[in-house]
């Protein structure tokens, strides 16, 4: 039977022992089939589970044994196979199909292929390709919005800009969900104040709540200690949950209460977020945080339906819990409990204040002409002097000729990319070797920020450029360098 299959395949008996190997599998595995016959599946195909090393899944039932026991096929499984005498494994993907006669399982067929193109790299490339034209679109719209427009024109530009940002949010949701599903997301650990993050996220939704005349209340008492954990993921969870609540509430109240539960015996802090939504006019199928998901209606055309599932997956990834329930007619709540390590105590610091950004001489290194034009005009309107370079080589030449205060550096460029250009600047021992460099790039996947900072950059901004975020980043870098 294996001989007729067009792909590499292995046959196992009911005891998960190898009984046959077809020629395609012999070629793929680079060894003689007779060397493998009689060996147990767990000693041949070592499972690799998403987000783990192969050794971390040894306590789980082997997929072939599971398929034989459950009589259910399993698809898109990842394995490592070690050829006799070889130290490096062959990465494989496979499908397991149980073979049964009547109700009795007689064995299983494992169809194999060599590991496909890195899905993480594919998602990173997709993110870059989508963000590049979006950056051009939103940059030009921001420029138009700052110009002299009639009220109708201003409204049209505002709607287009809002729609572009909505599209960017949808793209981010889709990419995030894909990354979670393939185990591409890892958690970081930084010190942060959860109350500060909650207030910052809530501030983004105040205009929406005011437009809908929704009472939007935040209750977040100060804590004695900072938390240690993934602040960016907490921000994303709160953003998704509050965004979900605002989109699905047309009237009434939304209340967010944050509290600190007693620490566990090992000193782990537990932060409790309770998000309640009450809409007296909501129908049963429009309950915001219903445990039973409903089919989106035409009233929710801007909702991708991914915000809540992404939040649920991130909460599970962080070791937390989320409970959704209907509390009364038109009311519902989401209660999230997240564990964090205890950080250092808070200290009173009165020197945190807003600063005005001075006029800067900026070197913009960007190969896309439309993005270059949009960014240069946006910065020029804010009073900065901007010189453009299309790649790293042009940037190095410009640095020899002109004194700059700062560099905005793209990542992917022909000839000499942003990472290598930064390394050469830092190693140059020239007067500009210590110049502040900020990444401005469409590379916005997990780990991209760290790659740019490790290359010697001082900050990181993901395209599309939002001028407010640029200003805050520059002020933070300049303040840090004054210390």
Write a brief structural summary:
The protein has 483 residues and is of the alpha/beta class. It has 13 helices and 18 strands. Strands 7, 8, 9, 10, 11, 12 and 13 form a 7-stranded mixed beta sheet that branches. Strands 2-1-6-5-4-3 form a 6-stranded antiparallel beta sheet.
Write up what this structure looks like.
This protein is of the alpha/beta class and 483 residues long. It folds into three domains: 113 residues, Beta-Lactamase; 152 residues, 2-Layer Sandwich (Heat Shock Protein 90), CATH 3.30.565; 122 residues, Response regulator (Rossmann fold), CATH 3.40.50.2300. It is built from 13 helices and 18 strands. The strands form three sheets. Strands 7, 8, 9, 10, 11, 12 and 13 form a seven-stranded mixed sheet that branches. It has a six-stranded antiparallel sheet with strand order 2-1-6-5-4-3. A five-stranded parallel sheet has the order 15-14-16-17-18, sandwiched between helices. Helix 5 packs across helix 8 and helix 7 packs antiparallel against helix 8.
Measured as a percent range, the helix fraction is 25-40%
Number of domains: 3
Taking the alpha carbons of the first and last residues, their distance comes to 73 Å
Q: CATH class of the largest domain, anyone?
A: Alpha Beta
Known CATH architecture of the largest domain: 2-Layer Sandwich
Task: List the total number of helices.
Answer: 13
- Radius of gyration, in Å, reads 27 Å
Mean pLDDT: 79
Q: Structural class of the secondary elements?
A: alpha/beta
Q: Which residues sit in consecutive blocks of at least 5 with pLDDT less than 50? A: 50-58, 291-304, 349-354
Summarize the main sheet: 7 strands, mixed
β-strand amount? 15-25%
For this structure, the quaternary state is single chain
- Morphology: globular
In CATH, what is the homologous superfamily of the largest domain?
Answer: Histidine kinase-like ATPase, C-terminal domain
If you consult CATH, what is the topology of the largest domain?
Heat Shock Protein 90
| Structure summary, number of beta strands | 18
């Amino acid at each position: 039977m294996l001989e007729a299959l067009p792909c590499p395949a292995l046959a196992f008996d009911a005891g998960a022992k190898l009984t046959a190997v077809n020629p395609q599998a012999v070629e793929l595995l680079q060894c003689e089939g007779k060397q493998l016959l009689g060996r147990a599946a767990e000693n041949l195909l070592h499972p690799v589970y998403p987000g783990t090393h192969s050794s971390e899944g040894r306590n789980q039932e082997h997929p072939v044994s599971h398929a034989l026991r459950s009589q259910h096929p399993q698809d898109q499984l990842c394995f490592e196979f070690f050829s006799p005498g070889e130290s490096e494994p062959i990465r494989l993907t496979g499908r397991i199909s149980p073979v049964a006669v009547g109700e009795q399982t007689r064995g299983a067929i494992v169809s194999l292929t060599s590991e496909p193109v890195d899905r993480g790299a594919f998602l990173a490339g997709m993110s870059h390709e989508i963000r590049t034209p979006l950056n051009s679109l939103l940059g030009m719209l921001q420029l138009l919005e700052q110009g002299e427009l009639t009220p109708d024109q201003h409204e049209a530009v505002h709607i287009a800009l809002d729609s572009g940002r909505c599209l960017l949010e949808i793209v981010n949701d889709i990419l995030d969900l894909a990354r979670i599903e393939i185990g591409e997301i890892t958690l970081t650990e930084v010190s942060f104040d959860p109350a500060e993050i909650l207030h910052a996220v809530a501030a983004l939704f105040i205009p929406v709540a005011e437009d809908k005349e929704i009472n939007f209340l935040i209750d977040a008492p100060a804590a004695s200690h900072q938390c240690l954990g993934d602040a960016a993921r907490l921000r994303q969870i709160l953003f998704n949950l509050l965004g979900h609540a605002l989109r699905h509430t047309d009237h009434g109240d939304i209340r967010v209460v944050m509290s600190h539960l007693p620490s566990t015996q090992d000193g782990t802090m537990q932060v409790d977020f309770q998000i309640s939504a009450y809409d007296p006019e909501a129908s049963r199928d429009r309950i915001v945080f219903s445990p039973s998901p409903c089919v989106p209606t035409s009233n929710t055309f801007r909702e991708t339906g991914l915000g809540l599932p992404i939040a649920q997956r991130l909460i599970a990834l962080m070791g937390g819990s989320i409970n959704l329930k209907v509390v009364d007619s038109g009311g519902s709540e989401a209660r999230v409990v997240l564990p964090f390590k205890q950080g250092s105590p808070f200290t009173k610091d009165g020197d945190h204040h807003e600063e005005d950004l001075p006029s800067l001489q900026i070197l913009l290194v960007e190969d896309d002409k439309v993005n270059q034009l949009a960014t240069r005009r946006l910065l020029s309107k804010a009073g900065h002097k901007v010189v453009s370079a299309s790649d790293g080589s042009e940037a190095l030449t410009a640095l020899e000729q002109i004194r700059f205060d700062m560099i905005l550096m793209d990542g992917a460029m022909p000839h000499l990319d942003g990472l290598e250009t930064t390394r050469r600047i830092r190693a140059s021992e020239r007067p500009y070797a210590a110049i502040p460099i900020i990444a401005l790039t469409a590379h916005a996947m997990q780990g991209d920020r760290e790659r740019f900072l490790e290359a010697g950059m001082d900050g990181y901004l993901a395209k599309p450029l939002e001028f407010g975020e640029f200003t805050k980043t520059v002020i933070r870098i300049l303040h840090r360098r004054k210390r």
